[in-house]
């Protein structure tokens, strides 16, 4: 039984090596190798700084942000903006505290999937708004680009196996 398992594992390694060297998979191989060297610490730090800044602004200046966005200022809107700020700040703290950890594949999977889900769903919502209103505010466009970039980065982090970087 043990020899059978070794034989299957050996065949899988041979297949993986032959696939990565084939001419048909050069694009996949280039993409795979480029994502293997992606530094998650930089992405986690950037996400933490951006979400933390947004969280602090939404928590302490919800009325100014509502006025800037030309939205009606009410007690309910102020409360929702502050709760959204608390959510963003909590996500920033999660990213900041786990930035030095090994992330990707099975490692820190909840952190990777939470970030990927947040940025993917937020990015899709922003794309929907921008598709229906291409003359939207520059703030919406910038936020959409940031969300799309982080959705792609966290998608790559979620689906790849990490390599520990030498510090």
Topology (elements, then pairings):
Blueprint: H1 2-21, H2 26-36, H3 40-60, H4 62-68, H5 75-97, H6 109-132, H7 138-159
Describe the structure.
This protein is mostly helical and 167 residues long. The protein has one domain. It has 7 helices and no strands. It has helices at 2-21, 26-36, 40-60, 62-68, 75-97, 109-132, 138-159. α6 (109-132) packs antiparallel against α7. The longest helix has 24 residues, at 109-132. It is globular. The two termini are 41 Å apart.
**Secondary-structure content class:** mainly alpha
The total of beta strands comes to 0
Q: N- to C-terminal separation?
A: 41 Å
Shape: globular
Tally of separate helices: 7
Which labels suit this protein?
167 residues, 0% strand
Write a concise synopsis of the structure shown:
It contains 7 helices and no strands. With 167 residues, the chain is mainly α.
């Amino acid at each position: 039984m043990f020899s059978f398992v070794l034989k299957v594992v050996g065949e899988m390694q041979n297949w993986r090596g032959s696939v990565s060297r084939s001419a048909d998979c050069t694009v996949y191989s280039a993409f795979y190798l480029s994502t293997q060297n992606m530094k998650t610490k930089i992405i986690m730090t950037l996400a933490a700084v951006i979400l933390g800044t947004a969280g602090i602004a939404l928590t302490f200046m919800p009325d100014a942000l509502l006025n800037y966005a030309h939205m009606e200022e009410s007690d309910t809107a102020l409360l929702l903006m502050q709760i959204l700020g608390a959510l963003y700040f909590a996500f920033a703290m999660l990213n900041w505290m786990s930035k030095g950890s090994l992330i990707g594949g099975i490692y820190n999977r909840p952190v990777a999937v939470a970030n990927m889900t947040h940025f993917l769903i937020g990015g899709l919502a922003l794309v929907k708004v921008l598709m229906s209103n291409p003359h939207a505010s520059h703030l919406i466009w910038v936020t959409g680009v940031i969300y799309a970039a982080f959705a792609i980065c966290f998608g790559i982090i979620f689906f790849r196996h990490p390599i520990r970087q030498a510090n």
